[in-house]
Amino acid sequence: MKRRTLDIILAGGGLMVAALLLALGLAVYGQYAFAQSYVTEELSAQKITFTPAEKLSAEEKDWKATSSCLVTYGGQLMQTGPQAECYAKNYIALHMETSAKTAGFPGATYATLGTIGGDLRAQVTAAKAKGDTVAATDLQKKVDTAASLRTTMQTGETLRGLLLTVYGFSTIGAMAGLAGTILYGIAAVMLLISFAGFVHAFVTPKEKVLFAPTGKPVTVPTPA
Question: Could you report the per-residue pLDDT of 113-122, keeping only the tens digit for each?
Answer without folding.
Answer: 999 999 999 9
